[in-house]
Specification:
One of its GO terms (molecular function) is cellulose synthase (UDP-forming) activity. One of its GO terms (cellular component) is membrane. The protein has helices at about 5-20, 120-135, 155-160, 190-205, 255-260, 275, 280-290, 320-330, 355-365, 385-400, 430-440, 460; strands at about 70-75, 105, 140, 145-150, 170-175, 180, 215-220, 230-235, 240-245, 365-370, 380. The chain is an alpha+beta fold.
Protein backbone atom coordinates (compact mmCIF):
# COMPACT_ATOMS: atom_id res chain seq x y z
CA UNK A 1 0.00 0.00 0.00
CA UNK A 2 1.26 3.43 -0.90
CA UNK A 3 -0.16 6.68 -2.17
CA UNK A 4 0.33 6.80 -5.93
CA UNK A 5 -0.49 10.52 -5.98
CA UNK A 6 2.63 11.25 -3.94
CA UNK A 7 4.70 9.20 -6.37
CA UNK A 8 3.39 11.16 -9.34
CA UNK A 9 4.17 14.44 -7.58
CA UNK A 10 7.73 13.33 -6.84
CA UNK A 11 8.32 12.32 -10.45
CA UNK A 12 6.76 15.53 -11.76
CA UNK A 13 8.98 17.66 -9.51
CA UNK A 14 12.03 15.72 -10.58
CA UNK A 15 11.08 16.10 -14.24
CA UNK A 16 10.53 19.86 -13.91
CA UNK A 17 13.77 20.42 -12.01
CA UNK A 18 15.77 18.46 -14.54
CA UNK A 19 14.08 20.28 -17.44
CA UNK A 20 14.85 23.71 -15.93
CA UNK A 21 18.46 22.82 -15.19
CA UNK A 22 19.12 21.22 -18.58
CA UNK A 23 16.93 23.25 -20.95
CA UNK A 24 19.42 22.76 -23.80
CA UNK A 25 19.80 19.01 -23.37
CA UNK A 26 16.59 18.12 -25.24
CA UNK A 27 14.87 14.97 -24.19
CA UNK A 28 17.82 13.47 -22.33
CA UNK A 29 16.51 14.78 -19.01
CA UNK A 30 13.45 12.52 -19.18
CA UNK A 31 15.69 9.50 -18.72
CA UNK A 32 16.31 10.60 -15.15
CA UNK A 33 12.71 9.68 -14.19
CA UNK A 34 13.82 6.12 -13.66
CA UNK A 35 16.21 7.29 -10.95
CA UNK A 36 13.41 8.72 -8.77
CA UNK A 37 12.87 6.56 -5.69
CA UNK A 38 9.63 7.24 -3.82
CA UNK A 39 9.15 5.84 -0.36
CA UNK A 40 6.38 3.20 -0.46
CA UNK A 41 4.01 4.27 2.30
CA UNK A 42 0.44 5.32 2.90
CA UNK A 43 -0.05 8.85 4.14
CA UNK A 44 -2.49 9.69 6.91
CA UNK A 45 -4.52 12.90 7.31
CA UNK A 46 -2.05 14.37 9.82
CA UNK A 47 0.86 14.06 7.38
CA UNK A 48 2.48 10.99 8.97
CA UNK A 49 3.07 7.57 7.50
CA UNK A 50 0.48 4.83 7.95
CA UNK A 51 2.01 2.42 10.49
CA UNK A 52 0.53 -0.66 8.81
CA UNK A 53 2.92 -0.63 5.84
CA UNK A 54 6.11 -2.69 5.90
CA UNK A 55 7.60 -2.37 2.43
CA UNK A 56 10.72 -1.21 4.27
CA UNK A 57 10.90 -3.25 7.51
CA UNK A 58 12.20 -1.64 10.66
CA UNK A 59 13.51 -3.30 13.84
CA UNK A 60 10.20 -2.80 15.66
CA UNK A 61 7.82 -3.21 12.72
CA UNK A 62 7.99 -5.80 9.97
CA UNK A 63 5.78 -8.42 8.41
CA UNK A 64 5.10 -11.08 11.03
CA UNK A 65 6.63 -9.02 13.85
CA UNK A 66 4.65 -5.90 14.72
CA UNK A 67 2.31 -4.45 17.32
CA UNK A 68 -1.45 -4.46 17.02
CA UNK A 69 -2.87 -1.84 14.65
CA UNK A 70 -6.42 -0.54 14.67
CA UNK A 71 -7.53 2.40 12.56
CA UNK A 72 -11.13 3.69 12.57
CA UNK A 73 -11.76 4.80 8.99
CA UNK A 74 -15.37 5.91 9.51
CA UNK A 75 -17.19 6.49 12.78
CA UNK A 76 -20.49 4.83 13.75
CA UNK A 77 -23.45 6.30 11.88
CA UNK A 78 -26.18 8.38 13.44
CA UNK A 79 -29.17 6.51 14.88
CA UNK A 80 -31.67 8.42 12.71
CA UNK A 81 -31.84 7.86 8.93
CA UNK A 82 -30.18 10.43 6.67
CA UNK A 83 -31.92 10.70 3.33
CA UNK A 84 -30.15 11.86 0.21
CA UNK A 85 -31.06 14.85 -1.97
CA UNK A 86 -31.43 15.02 -5.76
CA UNK A 87 -28.31 16.10 -7.62
CA UNK A 88 -28.02 16.49 -11.37
CA UNK A 89 -24.27 15.97 -11.50
CA UNK A 90 -24.19 12.87 -9.32
CA UNK A 91 -26.30 9.80 -8.63
CA UNK A 92 -29.82 10.57 -7.45
CA UNK A 93 -30.13 9.37 -3.84
CA UNK A 94 -33.60 10.78 -3.24
CA UNK A 95 -35.33 8.73 -0.56
CA UNK A 96 -32.24 6.60 0.04
CA UNK A 97 -30.53 6.31 3.41
CA UNK A 98 -26.97 7.48 2.71
CA UNK A 99 -25.48 6.60 6.09
CA UNK A 100 -22.26 4.59 5.95
CA UNK A 101 -21.46 1.87 8.51
CA UNK A 102 -18.42 2.00 10.74
CA UNK A 103 -15.32 0.83 8.89
CA UNK A 104 -12.25 -0.26 10.89
CA UNK A 105 -8.90 -1.65 9.76
CA UNK A 106 -7.57 -4.30 12.15
CA UNK A 107 -4.14 -5.93 12.12
CA UNK A 108 -3.51 -8.14 15.13
CA UNK A 109 -0.22 -8.25 16.96
CA UNK A 110 2.32 -10.77 15.73
CA UNK A 111 5.67 -11.88 17.10
CA UNK A 112 7.92 -14.79 16.13
CA UNK A 113 7.54 -16.41 19.56
CA UNK A 114 3.75 -16.75 19.31
CA UNK A 115 1.69 -18.99 17.08
CA UNK A 116 -0.80 -16.77 15.26
CA UNK A 117 -2.91 -19.79 14.09
CA UNK A 118 -3.41 -18.36 10.61
CA UNK A 119 -7.01 -17.74 9.56
CA UNK A 120 -8.59 -19.11 12.75
CA UNK A 121 -6.50 -16.79 14.93
CA UNK A 122 -7.29 -13.81 12.73
CA UNK A 123 -11.02 -14.50 12.92
CA UNK A 124 -10.96 -14.83 16.71
CA UNK A 125 -9.07 -11.55 17.04
CA UNK A 126 -11.60 -9.90 14.75
CA UNK A 127 -14.50 -11.28 16.80
CA UNK A 128 -13.10 -9.78 20.00
CA UNK A 129 -12.26 -6.41 18.45
CA UNK A 130 -15.64 -6.08 16.77
CA UNK A 131 -17.42 -7.02 20.02
CA UNK A 132 -15.90 -4.01 21.74
CA UNK A 133 -16.26 -1.55 18.86
CA UNK A 134 -19.70 -2.37 17.39
CA UNK A 135 -20.91 -5.67 18.93
CA UNK A 136 -23.21 -6.53 16.07
CA UNK A 137 -25.27 -9.68 16.73
CA UNK A 138 -24.38 -11.16 13.31
CA UNK A 139 -20.98 -11.69 11.67
CA UNK A 140 -20.41 -12.15 7.95
CA UNK A 141 -17.32 -14.14 6.94
CA UNK A 142 -15.90 -13.71 3.43
CA UNK A 143 -12.54 -14.77 2.05
CA UNK A 144 -10.27 -12.21 0.47
CA UNK A 145 -11.04 -13.56 -3.02
CA UNK A 146 -14.83 -13.23 -2.62
CA UNK A 147 -17.12 -10.24 -2.87
CA UNK A 148 -20.81 -9.46 -2.37
CA UNK A 149 -22.75 -10.04 -5.58
CA UNK A 150 -26.25 -9.66 -4.10
CA UNK A 151 -26.77 -6.68 -1.80
CA UNK A 152 -29.85 -8.34 -0.23
CA UNK A 153 -28.03 -11.53 0.76
CA UNK A 154 -27.27 -10.35 4.29
CA UNK A 155 -30.93 -9.53 4.86
CA UNK A 156 -31.85 -13.02 3.65
CA UNK A 157 -29.62 -14.57 6.30
CA UNK A 158 -30.83 -12.26 9.07
CA UNK A 159 -34.44 -13.20 8.32
CA UNK A 160 -33.68 -16.83 9.24
CA UNK A 161 -32.15 -15.84 12.58
CA UNK A 162 -34.79 -13.26 13.55
CA UNK A 163 -37.74 -15.48 12.64
CA UNK A 164 -39.36 -18.10 14.86
CA UNK A 165 -36.75 -20.66 15.90
CA UNK A 166 -33.92 -18.36 14.83
CA UNK A 167 -32.41 -18.41 18.32
CA UNK A 168 -31.31 -22.01 17.62
CA UNK A 169 -29.56 -21.20 14.31
CA UNK A 170 -25.81 -20.72 14.60
CA UNK A 171 -25.04 -19.73 11.00
CA UNK A 172 -26.54 -19.41 7.53
CA UNK A 173 -24.29 -20.86 4.83
CA UNK A 174 -24.49 -19.63 1.23
CA UNK A 175 -23.16 -21.66 -1.72
CA UNK A 176 -19.84 -20.78 -3.30
CA UNK A 177 -20.16 -19.44 -6.81
CA UNK A 178 -17.11 -18.68 -8.93
CA UNK A 179 -16.41 -16.64 -12.02
CA UNK A 180 -13.66 -16.89 -14.60
CA UNK A 181 -14.25 -20.62 -15.15
CA UNK A 182 -13.83 -21.99 -18.63
CA UNK A 183 -17.03 -23.24 -20.34
CA UNK A 184 -16.08 -26.91 -19.99
CA UNK A 185 -15.08 -26.52 -16.29
CA UNK A 186 -12.12 -28.81 -16.78
CA UNK A 187 -11.03 -28.55 -13.13
CA UNK A 188 -14.55 -29.01 -11.65
CA UNK A 189 -14.48 -25.66 -9.87
CA UNK A 190 -18.26 -25.41 -9.71
CA UNK A 191 -18.42 -28.36 -7.24
CA UNK A 192 -22.00 -29.02 -8.33
CA UNK A 193 -22.34 -32.34 -6.49
CA UNK A 194 -21.27 -30.82 -3.18
CA UNK A 195 -23.01 -27.43 -3.22
CA UNK A 196 -26.18 -28.45 -5.08
CA UNK A 197 -26.47 -32.01 -3.81
CA UNK A 198 -24.80 -32.77 -0.50
CA UNK A 199 -25.40 -29.38 1.11
CA UNK A 200 -29.08 -29.42 0.17
CA UNK A 201 -29.42 -32.88 1.72
CA UNK A 202 -27.70 -31.82 4.94
CA UNK A 203 -30.06 -28.87 5.19
CA UNK A 204 -32.85 -31.38 5.83
CA UNK A 205 -31.06 -32.71 8.93
CA UNK A 206 -29.18 -30.47 11.33
CA UNK A 207 -27.90 -28.19 8.61
CA UNK A 208 -24.98 -27.80 6.20
CA UNK A 209 -21.34 -27.67 7.19
CA UNK A 210 -19.42 -24.42 7.38
CA UNK A 211 -17.21 -24.18 4.29
CA UNK A 212 -15.08 -21.20 5.36
CA UNK A 213 -16.59 -18.33 3.36
CA UNK A 214 -19.98 -16.90 2.46
CA UNK A 215 -21.38 -17.57 5.93
CA UNK A 216 -23.43 -15.37 8.28
CA UNK A 217 -22.85 -16.26 11.95
CA UNK A 218 -24.78 -15.52 15.08
CA UNK A 219 -22.20 -13.98 17.40
CA UNK A 220 -23.56 -15.60 20.54
CA UNK A 221 -23.13 -19.08 19.02
CA UNK A 222 -19.39 -18.47 18.52
CA UNK A 223 -18.89 -17.98 22.26
CA UNK A 224 -19.38 -21.67 23.12
CA UNK A 225 -22.87 -21.43 24.60
CA UNK A 226 -25.65 -23.94 24.04
CA UNK A 227 -28.83 -22.90 22.24
CA UNK A 228 -32.20 -22.78 23.94
CA UNK A 229 -33.75 -26.15 23.27
CA UNK A 230 -37.10 -27.81 23.77
CA UNK A 231 -36.07 -31.50 23.57
CA UNK A 232 -33.21 -33.68 24.77
CA UNK A 233 -32.15 -37.00 23.26
CA UNK A 234 -31.01 -39.76 25.59
CA UNK A 235 -30.06 -43.37 25.20
CA UNK A 236 -27.02 -45.00 23.67
CA UNK A 237 -27.97 -43.87 20.17
CA UNK A 238 -30.14 -40.92 21.14
CA UNK A 239 -33.33 -42.79 20.30
CA UNK A 240 -35.34 -41.42 23.25
CA UNK A 241 -36.68 -37.89 23.06
CA UNK A 242 -37.88 -36.05 26.11
CA UNK A 243 -38.73 -32.49 26.95
CA UNK A 244 -35.82 -30.43 28.18
CA UNK A 245 -36.07 -29.03 31.70
CA UNK A 246 -37.40 -25.50 31.68
CA UNK A 247 -35.03 -23.29 33.59
CA UNK A 248 -37.41 -20.36 33.64
CA UNK A 249 -40.56 -20.31 35.73
CA UNK A 250 -43.71 -21.57 34.08
CA UNK A 251 -45.72 -18.48 34.96
CA UNK A 252 -44.26 -14.98 35.06
CA UNK A 253 -46.02 -11.86 36.17
CA UNK A 254 -45.71 -8.56 34.34
CA UNK A 255 -42.62 -7.44 36.25
CA UNK A 256 -40.80 -10.70 35.58
CA UNK A 257 -41.67 -10.57 31.89
CA UNK A 258 -40.18 -7.10 31.61
CA UNK A 259 -36.99 -8.28 33.30
CA UNK A 260 -36.78 -11.21 30.89
CA UNK A 261 -36.66 -8.78 27.95
CA UNK A 262 -33.53 -7.11 29.32
CA UNK A 263 -30.01 -8.33 28.43
CA UNK A 264 -28.72 -11.21 30.49
CA UNK A 265 -26.25 -9.66 32.95
CA UNK A 266 -25.45 -12.51 35.34
CA UNK A 267 -24.23 -15.69 33.68
CA UNK A 268 -21.78 -18.00 35.49
CA UNK A 269 -19.53 -18.26 32.43
CA UNK A 270 -19.19 -14.48 32.11
CA UNK A 271 -17.19 -14.30 35.34
CA UNK A 272 -14.52 -16.77 34.24
CA UNK A 273 -11.51 -14.92 32.91
CA UNK A 274 -9.85 -18.18 31.88
CA UNK A 275 -12.64 -18.75 29.35
CA UNK A 276 -12.97 -15.38 27.60
CA UNK A 277 -9.88 -13.52 28.80
CA UNK A 278 -9.39 -10.67 31.24
CA UNK A 279 -11.23 -7.97 29.29
CA UNK A 280 -14.19 -6.77 31.32
CA UNK A 281 -15.53 -4.76 28.41
CA UNK A 282 -15.61 -7.87 26.23
CA UNK A 283 -17.41 -10.05 28.78
CA UNK A 284 -20.02 -7.34 29.26
CA UNK A 285 -20.67 -7.28 25.53
CA UNK A 286 -21.63 -10.98 25.44
CA UNK A 287 -24.95 -10.46 27.22
CA UNK A 288 -25.80 -7.55 24.91
CA UNK A 289 -25.03 -9.66 21.82
CA UNK A 290 -27.28 -12.45 23.12
CA UNK A 291 -30.11 -9.99 23.66
CA UNK A 292 -29.77 -8.35 20.25
CA UNK A 293 -29.65 -11.72 18.47
CA UNK A 294 -33.02 -12.91 19.75
CA UNK A 295 -35.86 -13.38 17.25
CA UNK A 296 -38.63 -10.84 16.94
CA UNK A 297 -41.61 -11.30 19.23
CA UNK A 298 -44.11 -11.13 16.35
CA UNK A 299 -45.87 -14.40 17.17
CA UNK A 300 -47.35 -15.93 20.29
CA UNK A 301 -45.05 -18.95 19.97
CA UNK A 302 -41.90 -16.80 20.23
CA UNK A 303 -40.69 -16.95 23.80
CA UNK A 304 -38.36 -14.31 25.20
CA UNK A 305 -38.21 -12.42 21.90
CA UNK A 306 -37.39 -8.83 21.04
CA UNK A 307 -40.10 -6.23 21.47
CA UNK A 308 -40.68 -3.73 18.64
CA UNK A 309 -38.14 -0.92 18.81
CA UNK A 310 -35.79 -2.72 21.17
CA UNK A 311 -32.79 -2.22 18.85
CA UNK A 312 -33.40 1.45 18.04
CA UNK A 313 -31.49 2.76 21.04
CA UNK A 314 -28.55 5.09 20.24
CA UNK A 315 -25.09 3.63 20.58
CA UNK A 316 -22.54 5.18 22.92
CA UNK A 317 -19.88 7.26 21.18
CA UNK A 318 -16.62 5.63 20.21
CA UNK A 319 -13.94 7.08 22.49
CA UNK A 320 -10.22 6.53 22.92
CA UNK A 321 -10.47 4.09 25.89
CA UNK A 322 -12.75 1.84 23.83
CA UNK A 323 -10.30 1.78 20.92
CA UNK A 324 -7.43 1.08 23.33
CA UNK A 325 -9.36 -1.88 24.76
CA UNK A 326 -9.94 -3.20 21.25
CA UNK A 327 -6.19 -3.02 20.59
CA UNK A 328 -5.54 -4.92 23.83
CA UNK A 329 -7.81 -7.87 22.88
CA UNK A 330 -5.96 -8.41 19.56
CA UNK A 331 -2.59 -8.79 21.28
CA UNK A 332 -0.79 -12.09 20.91
CA UNK A 333 -0.83 -12.79 24.66
CA UNK A 334 -4.56 -12.30 25.20
CA UNK A 335 -5.48 -15.91 24.40
CA UNK A 336 -2.97 -17.40 26.83
CA UNK A 337 -4.68 -19.70 29.36
CA UNK A 338 -8.12 -19.15 27.81
CA UNK A 339 -10.49 -21.32 25.80
CA UNK A 340 -10.13 -19.38 22.58
CA UNK A 341 -9.40 -21.84 19.79
CA UNK A 342 -10.38 -24.90 21.84
CA UNK A 343 -14.02 -24.29 22.78
CA UNK A 344 -14.67 -20.66 21.79
CA UNK A 345 -14.54 -19.12 18.34
CA UNK A 346 -12.71 -20.72 15.44
CA UNK A 347 -11.02 -23.99 16.46
CA UNK A 348 -7.24 -24.32 16.12
CA UNK A 349 -5.14 -27.29 15.13
CA UNK A 350 -6.73 -28.30 11.83
CA UNK A 351 -6.06 -27.50 8.20
CA UNK A 352 -9.79 -27.05 7.65
CA UNK A 353 -10.62 -25.09 10.78
CA UNK A 354 -13.87 -23.96 9.22
CA UNK A 355 -15.43 -27.45 9.06
CA UNK A 356 -14.29 -28.27 12.60
CA UNK A 357 -15.76 -25.01 13.90
CA UNK A 358 -19.12 -25.81 12.36
CA UNK A 359 -19.10 -29.34 13.78
CA UNK A 360 -18.40 -28.02 17.27
CA UNK A 361 -21.46 -25.80 17.10
CA UNK A 362 -23.55 -28.71 15.83
CA UNK A 363 -22.33 -30.81 18.74
CA UNK A 364 -23.77 -28.25 21.16
CA UNK A 365 -27.17 -28.54 19.53
CA UNK A 366 -27.16 -25.56 17.18
CA UNK A 367 -28.75 -25.78 13.75
CA UNK A 368 -27.54 -24.27 10.49
CA UNK A 369 -29.37 -23.22 7.34
CA UNK A 370 -28.43 -23.48 3.68
CA UNK A 371 -29.64 -20.42 1.77
CA UNK A 372 -29.65 -20.32 -2.03
CA UNK A 373 -30.77 -16.99 -3.45
CA UNK A 374 -32.07 -16.43 -6.98
CA UNK A 375 -29.17 -14.07 -7.64
CA UNK A 376 -25.83 -15.38 -6.38
CA UNK A 377 -25.15 -14.03 -2.91
CA UNK A 378 -21.35 -13.98 -3.21
CA UNK A 379 -18.85 -14.70 -5.94
CA UNK A 380 -15.18 -15.54 -5.90
CA UNK A 381 -12.27 -16.35 -8.14
CA UNK A 382 -11.54 -19.97 -8.96
CA UNK A 383 -8.12 -21.56 -9.62
CA UNK A 384 -7.18 -21.01 -13.26
CA UNK A 385 -4.47 -23.66 -13.56
CA UNK A 386 -4.02 -27.26 -12.53
CA UNK A 387 -1.33 -26.56 -9.92
CA UNK A 388 -3.52 -24.21 -7.87
CA UNK A 389 -6.47 -26.56 -8.16
CA UNK A 390 -4.43 -29.56 -6.97
CA UNK A 391 -3.16 -27.59 -3.97
CA UNK A 392 -6.70 -26.54 -3.12
CA UNK A 393 -8.08 -30.08 -3.34
CA UNK A 394 -5.13 -31.44 -1.36
CA UNK A 395 -5.85 -29.01 1.46
CA UNK A 396 -9.52 -30.00 1.49
CA UNK A 397 -8.65 -33.70 1.45
CA UNK A 398 -6.18 -33.31 4.32
CA UNK A 399 -8.77 -31.54 6.41
CA UNK A 400 -11.37 -34.17 5.57
CA UNK A 401 -9.10 -36.87 6.98
CA UNK A 402 -8.49 -34.84 10.15
CA UNK A 403 -12.17 -34.37 10.94
CA UNK A 404 -12.78 -38.13 10.92
CA UNK A 405 -11.47 -38.40 14.47
CA UNK A 406 -13.89 -38.23 17.43
CA UNK A 407 -12.20 -35.06 18.66
CA UNK A 408 -14.29 -33.03 16.25
CA UNK A 409 -17.47 -34.95 15.38
CA UNK A 410 -19.88 -37.10 17.43
CA UNK A 411 -18.88 -40.55 16.21
CA UNK A 412 -21.31 -42.96 17.82
CA UNK A 413 -21.85 -40.64 20.79
CA UNK A 414 -24.74 -38.30 20.09
CA UNK A 415 -25.04 -35.62 22.73
CA UNK A 416 -28.37 -34.96 24.47
CA UNK A 417 -28.93 -32.09 22.03
CA UNK A 418 -28.36 -34.14 18.84
CA UNK A 419 -30.53 -37.09 17.72
CA UNK A 420 -28.83 -40.15 16.34
CA UNK A 421 -30.07 -39.47 12.80
CA UNK A 422 -27.89 -36.37 12.67
CA UNK A 423 -24.78 -38.43 13.41
CA UNK A 424 -25.39 -41.12 10.79
CA UNK A 425 -24.28 -38.99 7.81
CA UNK A 426 -21.06 -38.22 9.66
CA UNK A 427 -20.21 -41.95 9.97
CA UNK A 428 -20.54 -42.91 6.30
CA UNK A 429 -16.77 -43.05 5.91
CA UNK A 430 -16.18 -45.88 8.42
CA UNK A 431 -16.70 -48.80 5.92
CA UNK A 432 -14.47 -47.03 3.43
CA UNK A 433 -11.73 -46.56 6.01
CA UNK A 434 -12.00 -50.21 7.05
CA UNK A 435 -11.63 -51.29 3.44
CA UNK A 436 -8.59 -49.07 2.88
CA UNK A 437 -6.98 -50.18 6.15
CA UNK A 438 -7.32 -53.85 5.22
CA UNK A 439 -5.83 -53.16 1.82
CA UNK A 440 -2.80 -51.48 3.38
CA UNK A 441 -2.29 -54.27 5.91
CA UNK A 442 -2.64 -57.11 3.40
CA UNK A 443 -0.55 -55.63 0.60
CA UNK A 444 2.91 -56.37 2.15
CA UNK A 445 1.94 -59.99 2.86
CA UNK A 446 0.87 -60.62 -0.76
CA UNK A 447 -2.56 -61.72 0.41
CA UNK A 448 -5.16 -60.81 -2.21
CA UNK A 449 -7.97 -58.63 -0.94
CA UNK A 450 -10.45 -59.81 -3.57
CA UNK A 451 -10.92 -63.27 -5.06
CA UNK A 452 -9.96 -63.34 -8.74
CA UNK A 453 -12.80 -63.70 -11.22
CA UNK A 454 -12.42 -66.16 -14.11
CA UNK A 455 -14.36 -65.34 -17.22
CA UNK A 456 -14.66 -69.02 -18.13
CA UNK A 457 -16.73 -69.78 -15.04
CA UNK A 458 -18.60 -66.50 -15.00
CA UNK A 459 -21.42 -67.78 -17.21
CA UNK A 460 -22.16 -70.62 -14.77
CA UNK A 461 -22.52 -68.23 -11.84
CA UNK A 462 -24.95 -65.88 -13.57
CA UNK A 463 -28.67 -66.73 -13.66
CA UNK A 464 -29.96 -67.94 -17.00
CA UNK A 465 -32.71 -65.76 -18.51
CA UNK A 466 -34.49 -67.15 -21.56
CA UNK A 467 -34.64 -64.75 -24.50
CA UNK A 468 -38.45 -64.68 -24.61
CA UNK A 469 -38.51 -63.43 -20.99
CA UNK A 470 -36.30 -60.44 -21.71
CA UNK A 471 -38.33 -57.22 -21.69
CA UNK A 472 -36.41 -55.82 -24.67
CA UNK A 473 -35.10 -58.73 -26.79
CA UNK A 474 -32.28 -57.94 -29.15
CA UNK A 475 -32.69 -58.75 -32.84
CA UNK A 476 -30.74 -61.74 -34.07
CA UNK A 477 -27.28 -61.01 -35.34
CA UNK A 478 -26.67 -61.39 -39.05
CA UNK A 479 -24.76 -64.53 -40.06
Amino acid sequence: MYNSREEFKEKELANNSSSNGNSNSGGRARNNNNDVRVSKATWMSDGTYWPGTWFEPSPDHSKGDHAGILQVMSKPPEPDPVMGNPDEKRIDFTGVDIRLPMFVYVSREKHPGYDHNKKAGAMNALVRASAILSNGPFILNLDCDHYIYNSLAIREGMCFMMDRGGDRICYVQFPQRFEGIDPSDRYANHNTVFFDGNMRALDGLQGPVYVGTGCLFQRYALYGFHPPRANEYTGMFGQYKQQAPNIQAQSLDQEDQESEMQPLASHPDLKLSKKFGNSTMFTESIAVAEFQGRPLADHISVKNGLAPGALLLPRPPLDAPTVAEAVAVISCWYEDKTEWGTRIGWIYGSVTEDVVTGYRMHNRGWRSVYCITKRDAFRGTAPINLTDRVHQVLRWATGSVEIFFPETIPLGKPSPQIPATHCIPQRWHLPLHLHLSCHILLSPSSVPLFRPVHLAGLKHSLPYIPPHYHPHPHPPLPP
